[in-house]
Amino acid sequence: MEALQTRQLVIDIPGRANGSPLDLTVEAGQTWGVLGPNGAGKTTLLHTLAGLRPPRQGEVRLGERSLSALRRRIVAQRLGLVFQDRQDGFPATVLETALIGRHPWLSPWQMEGGDDLALAEQALEALDVAHLSDRLVNTLSGGERQRVAIATILTQNPDIWLLDEPTNHLDLHHQVAVLRLLEDQAKSGKVVFMCLHDLNLAARWCDHLLLLFPNGEACWGPAEQMLMPSVLERLYNQKLITVEADGAPVFVPVRS
Amino acid sequence: MPASEAFRPLVLLALLGLATMVLSVSVGSAGLSLADTLAALTGSGSELNRTLVLELRLPRTLAAFATGGLLAVAGALMQVLLRNPLADPYVLGLSGGAAVGALLSMLAGLAGVIVTASAFGGALLSTLMVFGLAHGTGSWTPSRLLLTGVVVAAGWGAVITLMLAIAPTRDLPGMLYWLMGDVAYAGTPWPAFVLLLLACLLVLPAGRSLNVLARGPLQAAALGVNVRPMEWGIYIGASLLTATAVTTAGSIGFVGLVVPHMLRLLLGNDQRVILPACALGGGALLVLADTLARVVIAPEQLPVGVITALLGVPTFLYLLYRSR
């Protein structure tokens, strides 16, 4: 069943031609990677898919309904987004930060209860940040903050996970741990749709890929069809050498 | 944290508020003992004491409490809106706008609710001006916002002085009242009280959304908050609270800055606790400040705005210094 669909979607990047409109069909259980050079519109695409900014044309559909026709709270129950950069206003603890993931699930008069607290604590445990739960988020390292942000969406528990560079700031071990967690989520029937900078992580962990070119052109499909060295070289404007390791292609930039 | 534990500080603050009010009505040019004060409050005691407490001091104390509460809640709301602990209705020129609005309608010979409505218009205009200009094409930066607010506030100050200088009537309360704030001229405290109570009741169901909004508008939208209506609600709410405070007691500064800051240090930043706590703490602070204003150079009285400014300016400078 299609969980997330775009129809003739053109994201709104000022001063850019429409390029190729996106007709994506994303089904439950799939893991999508969005690849593209800086400024290709990866973040704008995620924000558009989450309904945070209007598209230039076309629409995003969530299941049977158009995203723009749904109430924000309903959208937030079904779709969550991990931002690339986090805005820090007032200091908040790690536990409080994870706990706001419950917001879409609680009615205005409801206080967070024991169940909500348990969910937040489990999420912090799963991301290996439970020992930091009383620390203020703004005192954490970049990688720890990234894991707290992922714990927040785990607490939110939407069907569709949009993630903007989820492996940013993470050390190798935690990169793999986070990608495993995302893989488990996809296996349990969620959609994982993420922007990635690291081509090799995408080749390794995603079953579908969307390539965004800076001029607005795009192509998408199953990962094995998308991982053509010639296309990737054009995407990044960089010569690549392809080797194979651990059963997956590895792309290495040519030095000169 | 269980709900009962989270709200315990509110009970303490309510008791503190009551204590400051009892202190305020017993202290003054004719000092009363605690027993005399309580007797007068409950309707017994001598005729003179009853008049002194119930008709002279109690309305002023209640007005001070309500005004302080309104200003602190307005300040806390604007701080959430701007995600900046330096926001305050006085510093950002809302109080000045409200004072000009109120003065204009009084000079036109109007009274009562229309004065408050006109003050509300002035506060709202000031809010839109400051945020509109400071926002410009990019996003709010603290320095740009503060500069815009300070300049607009100075402009309102000049307009107030001009209006009072050329006003034909001498019936208007004095110039200091509109520039610095003074509870001595306060009329009935009840409209301010009712509004304060309403604000606290409205804030309870909106509190969690405010907490999420304090994380930034994008994050809030991603978690299901209708950001635009919420932001407009805060703009209008904060303007209305400020306008009512200004028509009650002139432009008193810095309560909206000091009180939320102190309470956040003590209680964390859950708006469902902080906003009612601001109502109580702001009230208690202004009652204390007004008591001080009455006794420091007795029998002369200071405008209470002088006291709050003396407390607020160092706090503001400290916050600005630390935010670098």
List keywords for this structure.
heterodimer; A: Rossmann fold; 9 helices; B: 324 residues; mainly alpha; ABC transporter involved in vitamin B12 uptake, BtuC; 14 helices; 0% strand; nucleotide-binding (chain A); ABC transporter ATP-binding protein (chain A); ABC_transporter-like_ATP-bd (chain A); P-loop_NTPase (chain A); ATP binding (chain A)
Brief write-up:
The complex is a heterodimer of chains A (256) and B (324). Chain A is of the alpha/beta class and 256 residues long.
Count of DSSP-assigned helices of chain A: 9
Strand elements of chain A, count: 12
Taking the sheet with the most strands of chain A, its summary is: 6 strands, mixed
Shape of chain B: globular
What's the helical proportion of residues of chain A? 25-40%
Number of strand elements of chain B: 0
Q: How many distinct domains of chain A?
A: 1
What does the radius of gyration of chain A come to?
A: 18 Å
Q: Shape of chain A, please? A: globular
Overall average residue pLDDT of chain A: 93
Largest interface: A-B, 29 and 25 residues
Known CATH architecture of chain B: Orthogonal Bundle
In the CATH scheme, the class of chain B would be Mainly Alpha
